[in-house]
């Protein structure tokens, strides 16, 4: 409740800024797609990360400068082009290290995946400086960011949990879940990831999705009540 109250209070200034963690949702555009990039930082030390740099690096960099953040990591929730396309440019601009789950780097670098995505016109190879796996922790200042491996949208999709906030990439949206019809996707695996890894988190957890199709943010409690994929496919099957 504490977090939610503060979230609504600070929504006026377009960011979530309280004692424990600074969060800013930055909408960026790549072609037809709108993606949410996120700045997450430790208010005490100003160390931070940026999640899902799709495009508009200058816009994101301006926010980083405005907030006086020392960027440590560029984290992608998965290896699709709309979540990694700006990584190399952001690395050049800031010197921060690129972080991806090991399964997506492995998968997208197979000849088969390269071939399929090239034919789909989505060719963009994920490269990383640091490979992470389930339960790894990224430290920024006094914050600990938990890496949660949630395969299904892609083999190496991750969600990031920090202090009551969950960054869900294309695994879970407000009122929906990520598509699983692209190579490496599995609907069964996606539902299982949400059921086993996300639903056990506290109900008041704030959901920050990779795209805002049905809304910009939510809570786990609200999704458990209103997201048909959860109510019908996951909870309905209990
Ligand atoms: Zn995706
Ligand atoms: Zn996406």
Structure description:
The chain contains nine helices and 15 strands. A seven-stranded mixed sheet has the order 1-2-3-4-5-6-7. A six-stranded mixed sheet has the order 8-9-10-11-14-15. A two-stranded antiparallel ribbon has the order 12-13. Helix 7 crosses helix 9. The longest helix has 12 residues, at 187-198. By secondary structure, it is of the alpha/beta class. It has helices spanning 2-10, 57-66, 81-84, 87-94, 102-108, 111-119, 187-198, 220-226, 228-234, and strands at 16-17, 22-30, 33-41, 47-51, 70-75, 97-101, 130-132, 137-140, 143-149, 158-162, 165-169, 172-173, 176-177, 206-209, 218-219. It is globular, with a radius of gyration of 17 Å. The protein has one domain: Ribonuclease Z/Hydroxyacylglutathione hydrolase-like (Metallo-beta-lactamase, Chain A), CATH 3.60.15. Helices cover 31% and strands 29% of the residues.
CATH class designation: Alpha Beta
Helix content: 25-40%
Q: Given the helix and strand composition, which structural class is it?
A: alpha/beta
Distance between the termini: 28 Å
Number of strands: 15
CATH topology: Metallo-beta-lactamase, Chain A
- Spans of at least 5 consecutive residues whose pLDDT stays below 50 are 1-14
CATH superfamily: Ribonuclease Z/Hydroxyacylglutathione hydrolase-like
Count of helical stretches: 9
Order of helices and strands: HEEEEHEHHEHHEEEEEEEHEEHH
